[in-house]
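sorry for the late reply, my laptop died twice this morning and i had to redo everyting from scratch. anyway the thing you sent over, i finally got around to it. pasting the sequence first so we're on the same page, its 184 residues, then the predicted structure underneath. double check i copied it right bc i was rushing
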Amino acid sequence: MRIFARVGGLAAVLALSLVAAASADEPLVPSWMKIEKPARLVRLNIVAGWNANNGALNFNGYFGGNMTVVVPVAWTVDIAFKNTDAMLPHSLLVTKPFKEDEMPDLAGLSQVAIPRAYTNNPEEGLPAPKTDTVHFVAKDAGDFYLFCGAPGHGHGGMWTKLKIDAAADAPYIVVDQAATEGRR
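ok and here's the structure:
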C-alpha cells in the first residue's frame, strides 16, 4: 500500500513539473508590460537589479538571455528604466546580438542598434535610484539584446533578448524553462 502511495505521489509531482515546464516557454504578458494595441504602443517598466538573481546583474530578475521580449514591427516602445541596485550603476542599450567571444566589456553609443534606444550614460550607467526613459519605434524585424553597457556587466550576464517580429500581432515575453524566477 505504501509503495502505491509513493508512486502516486511521485506521479503527481512529475505531472505538476511537466505542466510548469510546458508553460515556461509560453508567451505571457507580465505586470510590467502595458499594451495599447490601437496606438501600437508598448510600455515596459524595466528595473535593473530587480532582485539578487545573478548578483543583481539582471533586468526584472532575468539575465543571460533567459527572457525574450517580443514586439511587433512598427510598434512604439517606451521603456521606463530604473536602477534599484544600490551597489552598482546600470544602463540599458538595444544592441545587436553578440557571440559569446564578441561580447563587449563596455557598451556605448557605437553599439546601439536602434537610434535613441539607450539610457543616459550607457558606458557608466546610472546609480540607484536614478531613472531614465527610452523611446523608439521598432521599424525593422530582427533579433537584438537589451544590454547593460556598464563595465563588465554584459560579460556578467546582464542582458536579455529583444525580438522585433513581423509575425507578432501584440507584444509579449517568453521565459526560458531553466530561468530563475523573475518579475512577472
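The radius of gyration is 18 Å.
thats about all i looked at so far, will dig more tmrw
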